[in-house]
Amino acid sequence: MFKTLPGFREFYPEDCAKKNYIFAHWRNTARSFGFVEFEPPVLEQLDLFTEKSGEEIKSQLFEFVDKGGRAVSLRPEMTPSLARMVGAKAAGIRRPVKWFAIGENYRYERQQKGRLRAFFQYNADILGEDSINADAEVICLLVESLRSFGLTSSEFKLRLGDRNLWVLFLQSAGVEAELLTPVLSVVDKFEKVSQEALSEMMKDALAGSRVNAGDLISKIRKFISIRDVDSMRSAFPDSVELGCKIDARIADWKELLSILDSMGVGDFISPDLGIVRGLAYYTGFVFEAFQTVGTGRALAGGGRYDNLVKKLGYQDMPAVGFGMGDVTVSDLLELVGKGGSLNISPDAYLIIGSESLRPKALSLAGDLRRAGVKLDYALKPAGYGKQFKQADASGAAFAVILGDDEAARNVAKIKNLKTGEGKEVPFGDILSALK
Fold first, then answer.
1. Given 3.40.50.300, 3.40.50.920, 3.30.930.10, 3.30.450.40, which CATH number is that of 13-336?
2. 79/329 Cα distance (integer angstroms)
3. For 78-97, how does the pLDDT look when each residue is reduced to its tens digit (9 = 90+)?
């Protein structure tokens, strides 16, 4: 007996219907924002991910050497592939690039609720535009993608942080430039690890620095608790060197929040400097959507990553985007009862009175299917009783009955399988009778 590998899913028809329901909402929402779909390869050169992703993802790669001697990896995320694809064709692509993708990613991590080793992710990104309007567009798309399921601001929130502001804060605290990235990685763990572990991680990140780890942790705790823009500015010490940069960034915050209010999603947004994002390539505003019911799990995350395309060796191109996983979204929809009506049954079941009528029945079935009717019938000869049992088991709403008498008059009997009501209709009227 073979079993499914740990962390991998198999989708039976009902599960596929749930998955495709989610995908359809994602696609429709992205397209309503003017995004177009792309699809990156599932297997890439290993270096694409080891050089451009965070340390956590590097440790989770499904990597191997292929038969050609190449070091490769199943994709753990799609952003590096997107940056590579856009960078390779940058000269001929109309900007801004507004692309989205829905694909399966793979990470060898510990299996737990909401986190699997194979998961589908919806990515949407804007490249070639550095204005705050691009950040707002992506954030609004994320919110509307969740709202499309009927989710409200009482069921999820988007927490908005800022890597740029953190860099300015750490600089004002004396952290050396070369230590900013490792310190930010520790900041990302503030809500995820114990105080003891945090202290050790910060000491490691500040190795060789004149900054005291304990003092910096205390400053970070105060800064990370700020939830309004005006308080962000007052948290900085007076600095001639950094003052203008800080004021400019606070102005960016106010502009972004104002735009999001105008877009009608302000109620979903919560400033939260605890959001830093662990991936190494983020450079500006970062954000995560969390459910506010149940366990409060993360639903999506993203931010600005202006340097990634250039780091891959291509023309410099600013970028901002997000990723949203299907596992946590599906769990949330089930929790709040907003998974939609997922009917995988045929619309009608064709009852064939005798085998001599099968050619005529198949012709009728073809006409109805081409007209958009989901229709099934018995593939082997069977009596009326058995065919009606099959019709009931299929979940079809109607039975289309073609007996010898009906066929001779070019009519069929349409029976509502829920109410038992039936009527005869000419072949040409069957389609309208099934609606």
1. 3.30.930.10
2. 20
3. 999 999 999 999 989 999 99
